[in-house]
Write a structure and sequence with these properties.
The chain is of the alpha+beta class and 486 residues long. The chain is 29% helix and 16% strand. Strands 1-2-3-4-5-7-6 form a seven-stranded mixed beta barrel. The chain has a five-stranded mixed beta sheet with strand order 9-10-8-11-12. A hairpin with a 4-residue loop joins strand 2 and strand 3. Helix 9 crosses helix 12. The protein is globular and about 70 Å long.
Length: 486
Amino acid sequence: MKNLLRLLCFAVVVSAVACEPITSEGPQGTPSIGDDNTIPQNPTTPLGESVKHLWNKETLPEITLRVTLSEWNRMLTTYDANSNTKAYFKGDVTFDNGTEVYEIKEAGWRLRGATSRRRPEGGGGELHRQNNADWHHFHTQINLRKFHKDDQHTIGGVRKMYLKWHKDDPMYVREMYCYDLFRRYGVWTAVNDIYCRLWIHVEGDKQPAYYGVYEMLETIDDEFLKVRSELFGGHKGNLWKCGETGADLKNYHEDWKFGLDQDTDEEWIYELKTDNYSFTDAKAQLVDFMRKLNTKSGKDLHDWLGEVMDIPLFLRTYAVNVTVGMWDDYWNHSKNFYLYFNKGGTEGYKFFLIPYDYDNTLGTTNVEGVQDDAGRHDPLNWGKSKENPLVAKILQFNDYKKLYVKYLKELIEPANELFDHASSTARIRQWQSKIRDYVRNDTGEDMEIYDKPASWGNHSEYRLLEDNNNFFKVKAESYATWLQQP
């Protein structure tokens, strides 16, 4: 009964926005998509054994990567030749979650990251300094089955995990908070993640180097699709990574933007990660989607969007995206997302946008696109709508915009315990209490937790736990202004 009263309250407060009235109909009397009056918090994602073994937030797994001296030096020289290398290296992995220990021999691991990619030891040209190494934090992806395709090279059926250091986040919590909020709000396309502790032991060193507290994330790949197959409506479709600036979903004539992931160092704006269909057919499907998105209009566009997309899921995704202050995104920067078409062909599929890379959020803000303050910018005009048209194409329709506004308000409503100040700070304090004693590490970097955004941001005043310039409070006050305009 209490939840019903809360939802009725939301129905009362949702009001007109921008410069046009929100109605219950689409263009020219098109029926609306419905009110979607539920908040599906903590939805169950069918991940099976992987939840028990890997993504249990009650654990703090300890991971040790053991590498031969020759293989470690090969990694260093490969990085010096091409810092963006996608080459895999061999290593043995121990995974200990406190109740079970897994020993994986000859797993694969590689460097990851774009602007955050780093040399794990020393400066250019140096080889390993035994027992006197100059360690550096770095992102790495572990592929347990890279060199051996058998069930012994998995952890509870999971083959890959992405280990990410807390670059530019002295709070050790920003990306963890964002993915948790996505899942709390029913965005099941968000990856699972937990904290872990990482050691690296190079052959011949007296003891392993402790790299500190990392974030361990589910990788977005064919396994990610498979465990969500029922939700996606199929897992054998086309998955595209859009991690580079330029994935605007507008300019579809430049063939050089599209490529197939063939485990080489080549970079693409739209990179196909699956091979269930020919690359030619997958590219034709994506190009056809872009063409229709940019040429359809009015009722034709409205109805087509409703057919090929789960509009409520997409708008929930973007409501969270904007609320956490993700400026380095599709709408502003045409990057940092995945696309998934659950079937091949140019008809009869469903299209999904999968959120990705959320460390530059919650007050770590910068000038990008049309905004320069992720806490106070208009959530209805968050990005460059002409250059990156997908969101604006959707929000031009009153029924779709009404849902988006409703979701924004639900997120900041204290009764829902989602993005409000009290519940958010409680979650952050709980997570930090779990890792605080373990952040000091052998790199000498990121040695303590403190309440500031990244040093390079343009709003250094934002805080997450302090009351003054608190990002959660600033965002709620901002929405009270933007979302009540006549």
